[in-house]
Structures
1.
Amino acid sequence: MTNLAKYLDIKPEVKEALDAGRPVVALESTILSHGMPYPENLGFAARVEQVVRDNGAVPATMAIIGGKLKVGLGEEDLKVMCEAHGVGKVSRRDVPVYIANGHNGATTVATTMLMADMAGIRVFATGGIGGVHRHGEVTMDVSADLQELAHTSVAVVCAGAKQILDIGRTLEYLETMGVPVLGMGTDEFPAFYCRRSGHKLDYACSGPAEAAAILRAKWELGLTGGVLIANPIPEQYGLDFDKMEGVIQTALDAADAAGVHGKDITPFLLAKVKDLTGGESLASNIELALNNAACAAQIAVSLANNA
Ligand code: PSU
Ligand code: MN
């Protein structure tokens, strides 16, 4: 008994592109509301949409505003997400609550994927995904992003996962759930700020056309579910792995001391890392996300050209 039309509000430009089979790239809003400071996030929001356009696709930033699932945001909506006053973090479980109470919510990777799927968008660019947290084997803190990748047919282009997570267990979980993980030009899973994580991948992908061919094969076969495309941060913006490990340990200790858990732990750790590394990490974060947007747009173009 789905009634999507009642809840889904697709921006006309995005709707026209989808109807015509032209490439569209989904973007998330948690990275804006809870991942970057204001007003830097506002500049980033405009730049990332422009990068998608420069690479031949239409951007669709997702958010929940006024009881609607918004696919594609105008300037005003983007500002609401970036100012982030009273804007919650919305993962899959939170969606119906936000729809019913009309609160504004920023979408995580999981929610952006499910909204993209509802709208018929197959490619999504983000910074980093959620995953299995360190000590997740005890706390059972596993991001809903991984379940969404298991079930929802959207390709997610990311720069890997931050070292705040247990990257090895995150990759094990994705393998169990049947999610292909492709390294873009690399056979090592990247660790967000760092090009390397020490975790090897089974599949290195030569470029957007090969990624698109893999997506097509998976979905034409009826193998539902996502694909994770891990695109390392550009060399000149990469930070040192060992230095970041120290920073992250400090952040994890602070989270322990403050007793943070549940949905608050990821934003808490992200904010701490940002405080400890200052502008350097923000600049890297912005550059890797722009790099992913370009890659995602090229994959979307390749998919649309060979539909
Ligand atoms: N990791 C980052 N930056 C982010 C996030 C994760 O390096 O902004 C955000 C994404 O929106 C991701 C969410 O989907 O946090 C995961 O949160 P949780 O671990 O609570 O599922
Ligand atoms: Mn969690």
2.
Amino acid sequence: MARKTVLVTGGAGYIGSHTCVELLNAGFPVVVLDNFRNSHPEAIERVRKLAAGSLKLVTGDVCDSACLERLFAEESIAAVIHFAGLKAVGESVAKPELYYRVNVGGTLTLIEAMLKAQCSRFVFSSSATVYGDPQEVPVPENARFAPESPYGASKAMVERVLTDVAKANPSWRVALLRYFNPVGAHVSGEIGEDPLGPPDNLFPYVAQVAVGKREYLTIHGNDYPTRDGTGERDYIHVVDLARGHVAALDHLDELHAATAINLGRGIGGTVMEVLRAFEKACGHPIKHVVGPRRPGDVARYFADPAQAEKLLGWRAEFDIERACADTWRWQSRYPDGFRTR
Ligand code: WQD
């Protein structure tokens, strides 16, 4: 794709900030829209230090149609990568109306602004949670949808909305990128995952135990039918994921209407394997106990990444060891993330 301006909603977030670095490295001018509800302005300053190029920041909410109308009037946006949204599975069960308002409503507001501005290139941050408990692994894109949380259901709904909008507007090209488990940090250690409050996810929790912010890791069950009894997931390095978005932009014109693409390694890793790799990265043991299974967890879950390679010429490069080393560099340098003094 020609190097025209890309709007990145949620561009100050974990995956958004890493994607901005790769977009700038690839020569795309970037405009970030972020409301900083679950991110920090310092992340944008760090991105500016990590990659040369034009990066403008608009502080605002994707649900605010007036803000979007002004943005599309002032900037010539050729494509949108839409990260802005809520993503805590547990919170979505407690507040489903909030998740549908922001994730589905926010995307509808964005689509309406794009239609008005005649911007027809859309890359959507979807999630493998649309599959629910997969009937087969590795999981292909045509696996049945069975989202189990309002979060997963909101992602499935947005995919349906974008598919229908692409059908109604033949000039539109949409990539529905389904992430497996994003982990890791930029090799500089300057940006990384910075969860507010106690992390739900394995990697940030292990990292916080390793740096002494948390006392120990609870392993949610070790009686699963996997090679060591602990849950198995497809941990994809966030920089690989970011590069997958650049590849999607570069191939968007060749795709048909709305196309779903898994972004994963296609290789599973267990909780124990992550723990051991992290101990190697940080150089000391990580205290852990085995607790009961976590409701809603499945045993094994990893991508069939063949479509990404075929359609985007993209495949993940980095393994769990690299992701642990990069996460440790970020976490040990900034124990309180972007709020570290
Ligand atoms: C991974 C493994 C746990 C924490 C979630 C969301 C999904 C997506 C990615 C947004 C499992 C085990 C975890 C802990 C543990 N996010 N674990 N102790 O559940 O695969 O997916 O994040 O799209 O929507 O559902 O990731 O990191 O929570 O768990 O033992 O303290 O680590 O049981 O086997 P998950 P996770």
